[in-house]
Amino acid sequence: MTRLALAALAVFLLTSVLVLGARPLIAHDEARYAAIPAEMIASGDWTQLRLSGFRYYEKPPLGYWLTAASMSMLGPSAFAIRLPCAIAGGIAALAAWWVAVRITGRCRDGPLAFLVQVTTIGPAVLATLALLDPPFAACIAVTLAAFWSACTSRGRACAGWLLLAGVAAGAGFLIKGLLALAIPGAAAAGFLLWERRWRDLLLMPWIPLCSAVAAVAPVAWLMHQSEPDFWRYFIEVEHIRRFTNPDANQHPQPWWLYLAIFPVGAFMWTLAWPRAISGLMTDPHIRSGVRFCLCWIAVPMAALSMSSGKLPTYILPLYVPASVLVAIGLRIAFEQGAVRRQDADAAGPVALCVIGCLALALAATGPEAIGLESPWRGGSRLPLLIIAAASGLWFAIDRWGWRARDADAWVSRQALAVTPMLCALAFLFPDAIAPRTKVPWEVLAGHRDAMGSASLLLASAETAHAVTWTTGRRDFAILGRPSEFDNELGLVTEAQRLLPWSRTHSTVRSALAIPGTSVMLVADPWMAEALKSDSTLPAPHIDELHGNIAVMEWTAPVHSADAPDGMPLAAQAHPN
Predict the structure, then answer these.
(1) Residue 275: which of 234, 320, 327, 312 has the closest Cα?
(2) Which end of the chain has a smaller Cβ tally under 10 Å, C or N?
(3) pTM (2 decimals)?
(4) Rg, the chain, Cα only
(5) What DSSP letter does each residue of 315-336 carry, written as one string?
(6) How far apart (Å, rounded) are the C-alpha atoms in residues 524 and 147?
(7) Which CATH number does the domain 441-573 belong to among 3.40.50, 1.10.1740, 1.20.1070, 3.90.25?
(8) Mind listing the pLDDT tens digit for each residue in 327-357?
(9) pLDDT at position 264
């Protein structure tokens, strides 16, 4: 048991923690979830949610607080920004551990479920990104793990587990909102109905609801005192409108989206589902636990599919019960002889050999030899060598796994086999072919001083997060479509910073009419081309195009020694 638990911890550290700083921040999401906590730290007010200086009401504050705490302790690095998500991924895996043990009563099933969870590609990758979804999924996982413990307990123990479930649900609400109550509530109700536990269906919800309200109330009051309009906007726009009639910012998607992406996110364990199902069907003692996990997956997925606005990450909490079922089912199948060593000769090992050999060949000749463009900057071949090494290790550990004589060793080695490739993913980001707006840091770093000192700085909504993170400025104008910066509050100070394209040319001309004024643009290429084609504007002395990011700068000549250095942003965006 100790060796298995240590192996599980080692895999988690390798796949979710040690690789956190290997990849640059990805805009817009990671830049957003870095910039908001950075503004909290800079202002010292952690109840003010600001994105590039705009009031940002899309989510409650707890997720940003976690990142701000990490940045306060470790500095503004990619590792610190992503660390709360990695820890959350570990908490979700621990919930899978706990549920597996409570279902079977077998302690060694816990580390197996943990290993399956941290080597499932969807949770593993998302745990290394700075998003709100991993902490939210961890809260859901703890909520439902505590609920299952309450279902299998009595008296004070049952009440204690229900209390914990409510506190965890409240924490989830403070990260992403009402889904923290809806997902576990739907799953729990579906399970109790299936089990015909009518009395529990009526009585069990009250303790979690009361404890959730108690957990949320202090923070809700603080937010109301700081931003009186926060909760109205959050409920009306981010819940009701997103569910019923989402706009382009709220991700309208077809109803079948989650059914299509759930198996993809569960890869490679998706391939083991038939074998795991065969094992689960043979043990009647775990029937109730299997029903609980199935309700945890199916009922929330059906409810989420009814919403018009969808994001793939919404179903992240549903991988926890899938990991539990896979771990238990595979272990039972092996013990009952349903897994044969001849299965090792399937197509998987052959595919790994082909991938490894192809990666080595391309590393030797370069992708250009077969007419392909290298996806890595500078034509680096190191990622290809990493792919070859990871494929080789996967193949070797897989073959070693099939020599296992007991179920625990076999399942754990299947998880260990995937680990090298999951670690490698952090070093394989295709920076040469990714849009510059996704990884703009090298471009913006070269103009950091100019952007920081510009009298008038214009940025499109697509580049604004990265501009804030790079320069620390929160006074620039958002050019063109405001996107998420339009919080519908109609505040004068913020409206002044939303610059419609129809006024852009006149604003730049007015700014350059003041001697010594510098105007800088970081935006989409078409915006730069339109400004260059304006014959009433002088030619910019900086005019660069980096993929889908255009950088331009104009400086008005100084005609006298007493000319002003610049002018306030509001006067620039709204010249009199």
Answers:
(1) 327
(2) C
(3) 0.92
(4) 27
(5) GGGGHHHHHHHHHHHHHHHHHT
(6) 49
(7) 3.40.50
(8) 999 999 999 987 776 566 566 788 888 899 9
(9) 95
